[in-house]
Design goal:
The chain is mostly helical. Helices cover 54% and strands 0% of the residues. The chain has seven helices and no strands. α3 packs parallel to α5 and α4 crosses α5. The radius of gyration is 35 Å and the shape is flat.
Amino acid sequence: MFLQIREFLDHREKIHVYANSQREHHRERFRDSLRFGLGEIKERVQFLDNLNERDVLGLAKRIKRRKRATPEYMYCLSYAFLQDLENIKVFNKTPGALQILIKELTGKKKTRKLRGHVSHGHGRIGKHRKHPGGRGNAGSMHHHRINFDKYHPGYFGKVGVRNFHLRRQHKSNKIFPFTG
């Protein structure tokens, strides 16, 4: 009986120690987040302080193979370029890597079509000839669109089926055989 109580207390003590260590760990992480994550990047900075030509060559080959440079790669490269002139020379020796960096810095963004007009007509904000009300007749500009299409056809381009001045034949000349 005494042995079971002792095992129970030992188990309870282990749980207590584990809970305290977890609490301390979470407190430390919370403090790091309050300090803008400086504690989390401490190890990263130590890695960045010791970049050599071999690391730069590996980054350059990785950038060339993937045909894009992530912000993390760009950050590492800029840090390496500031450390040593040899790192820049090693990067320039890798063919094609510099062009990919130029593309990343000056190329078109993935969101360029989404950054246009409200109705995503891929135009600039100031351009007009797109329906401002979204799809179809939805939105508060419904009457504006309907009236423009009615009185100024073709202003917004070819939008849907228009049947103005359509002559319907009221009298039919067809003869249907009557079978009785």
